[in-house]
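Reproducibility note. Readers wishing to regenerate the assembly model reported in the main text can use the exact inputs given here. Chain order matters: entities are listed in the order in which they were concatenated for prediction.
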Amino acid sequence: MFNCITIIGCGLIGSSLMRAIEEKELSKKINIFDKSNDVTSFIKKNFKAEAYKDISDSVKDADLIIISAPLSSYKEILLSIKDNLKKDAILTDTGSAKKEINKIINNFNLPNLNWIASHPIAGTEYSGPEAGSSHLFKDRWCILSSDENISKDKFKLLENFWYKIGCKVKFMNFEDHDYVLSLTSHLPHAIAYSLVRTAINNDDKFKNDIIQYSAGGLRDFTRIAASDPLMWRDIFIDNSENILKVLEKYVANLEEIKKAIINKDGNKLIEIFSSTKKIRKDIIKAGQDTEKPGFGRK
Amino acid sequence: MFNCITIIGCGLIGSSLMRAIEEKELSKKINIFDKSNDVTSFIKKNFKAEAYKDISDSVKDADLIIISAPLSSYKEILLSIKDNLKKDAILTDTGSAKKEINKIINNFNLPNLNWIASHPIAGTEYSGPEAGSSHLFKDRWCILSSDENISKDKFKLLENFWYKIGCKVKFMNFEDHDYVLSLTSHLPHAIAYSLVRTAINNDDKFKNDIIQYSAGGLRDFTRIAASDPLMWRDIFIDNSENILKVLEKYVANLEEIKKAIINKDGNKLIEIFSSTKKIRKDIIKAGQDTEKPGFGRK
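Running the prediction on these inputs yields the following structure tokens for the assembly.
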């Protein structure tokens, strides 16, 4: 399908893509670049992909370049590769916020490059190439975003690539993407981090008890709060505008519960707690989670 | 082990206990009382336990009575059964908040009754007897709370009962229980309900997108926010003091993240996000969650 794909950044997501591309034979050649020597050694030892020491060398034959690195590194990556790009190559990424990086890439003004953003909504609480899996994207959504004047053929090529990786694909403009993700992913992470910090910072006397009895709810949040700190720093900075907006709405909802607790207002509490049951069913119906109790834990 | 156990309230937890008691042969006879005719019919149709129409009849032969009903119903239950209790019977429960119900039960001043509170930390997002399972308590903690003057023999008998059900058992006084659970369970629920309400109340234009792309974090919270509203209303009212206290600490932590986002303070964000990674490992080490990525979802 492609002659050469280059993946820049080979952690959980990048290495999962590499595995899927190899397994599904989506490219004759796979090039890898990662800043970390440990990552490069791991790839060399275990996979067929060619790992480069020089980032600009890694892209020169690529028909498709996938940036799978923290958002704050995009500018430096573009600076390093811009003069070595193959004519009419597609540039995509796997980042969780789009509006700011779109500005950065457009500012480079590279007329022979087809920039189409990708966001495969997949991942786990683990980081690094050892945690990757070729099945990570199976049945997950991948959101594509691009400017209107993009080549239709290139768009279709990339869309088809994600289908073959295993994703369902949808188009969304950069702004809508960042707003929807602020609610479905970024706000939940802010909340999870705050909760787990509240629980740990607590009185040492009860620390072991808190860990021991975490099955009553807390443990579900610790999974999310174990994600890669560097990646999340960049998301919170890039999508700050939306995150602050939804955080404000969230605090208002929290105040509503607080007020009902202070007033011991049973009817209001029932109203609040009943309103959220349905969305779980909708999410399961949409194939976005398992209906097994407790996520099917044993 | 017991001649007769009566379970009052036969939903998810009560029916799971009934199943486990039957399976492990922990009582010659099992009596059931539930206000709901649907529940009673379901039990009669599927299990050996005897379902009573009259709550006071259901307890008269019982050596062990287990209340597995919402906290707000305890007073009415005690009023209905207090004159029919067998001498030296053990009364226990499965409620998630202890201090207030302990006051209520002590106010009845029943000298021939051995009141020892139980809290098996187990459950799922589903309600009702159809959702029950005899394995629900396997390897879960059960916290026992009692006054100091309780009969040691009766305490051991109940402790042993929970061991045989499959639990690990720990003693904690009523106050400490309520504080620890406010952090591990009650605060997480308040937060999950607020988040899911923030996400649903949103602009209808994006509602379907929000459900569709919930795998990025939101879906984990919807599980918790699908729990039984009536049960949670009572917990929030009974344990309001602790919940409001930890909610305040939580809001302070949320403000810290908000400030770091406003200031685009990358170092502070990294510090916040890094501090929570370890607790996940501690929870897995304590056997309280699976180490499989994404809770082992497929």
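We highlight two features of this model. The mean pLDDT of chain A is 94. The domain at 2-172 of chain A is CATH 3.40.50.720 (Rossmann fold).
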